[in-house]
Design goal:
single chain; metal-binding; metalloprotease; signal; mainly alpha; metal ion binding; 7 strands; 54% helix; globular; 263 residues; metalloendopeptidase activity
Length: 263
């Protein structure tokens, strides 16, 4: 009976899903969970990540990341600016970063080896925030609601397990919050992130250097972060072309006093 009820609820949720359009014009299928639920999942995933650690206790690193995040957040829509954005730096060598619904940003110390300037770090973080504001996590969960793990996910959302976790893995794994997005999502996050960084007063041309550094760091085997991303060389060409069109936006931001001095 419980299983049948769960399936009926899932069916109702899927019926309530909607097709929408992202800021880049891409059609999206979203709405299986509410924004409040997404924020709750993001907060839980972030808490689990921090508990697992290890966290960096370097005050300068934490202030550096927080400064870049704050500068970018000021360029978000009003509803996203009202979120209490929070960042954490993890003492991990893998060059990685992510952002979650509810305003959570995680950065590994390994990213500093490839994001060597504040502008390059803004390219990384802007890309990750782009995933959040373009509702990519919502898209993933909406797809997963029809998958084999839907009953577990629904039960967790309803509080059946006492906390947002399931047998065999945390919500962090179940929702795929920290897994790479689709290539369409990654390309869209590139567009949104590069635009955001230019609006915030970070040089959009730094995104090109950042991805060149990422590829070089991987040698013959690209970093795991790039595994589902678009073809590296095509991506660099697109970033370069877009950077050229965004230079006026960057210059206008600087003229207007948006001159981040993060480090």
């Amino acid at each position: 009976m419980r299983h049948t009820i769960a399936l009926l609820v899932i069916a109702a949720l899927l019926a309530a899903c909607a097709t929408t359009t992202s800021s880049t014009g891409r059609r999206q299928y979203v709405g299986a969970v509410s924004q409040d639920q997404l924020n709750q999942l993001g907060a839980q995933a972030f808490t689990e990540a921090k508990q697992k650690g290890p966290l960096s206790t370097d005050a300068r690193q934490n202030a550096y990341v927080r400064c870049v995040v704050n500068a970018l957040v000021k360029q978000l829509p009003a509803d996203q600016q009202r979120v209490a954005w929070e960042s954490a730096v993890f003492a991990e060598n893998e060059p990685n970063a992510y952002a979650l619904p509810g305003g959570k940003v995680g950065v590994n110390t390994g990213i500093f080896g490839v994001a060597r300037t504040q502008d390059q770090l803004a390219a990384v973080i802007g890309h990750e925030i782009g995933h959040v504001i373009e509702r990519h996590h919502d898209e993933r969960i909406t797809r997963q609601m029809g998958a084999a793990g839907a009953v577990q996910l629904l039960g967790a959302l309803a509080g059946d397990y006492g906390q947002l976790a399931t047998q065999g893995g945390s919500m962090l794994a179940q929702t795929g919050f920290l897994l790479p997005g689709s290539r369409a999502q990654e390309s869209e996050a590139d567009v949104v992130g590069q635009r955001m960084m230019a609006q915030a007063g970070f040089d959009p041309r730094a995104a090109v250097a950042l991805w060149q550094n990422m590829i070089a760091a991987g040698g013959s085997r690209p970093p795991q972060w790039l595994s589902t991303h678009p073809d590296p060389q095509s991506r660099i060409s697109e970033l370069q072309a877009r950077a050229n069109t965004l230079v006026p936006t960057y210059e206008q931001a600087r003229a207007a006093g948006r001159r981040p001095a993060c480090g």
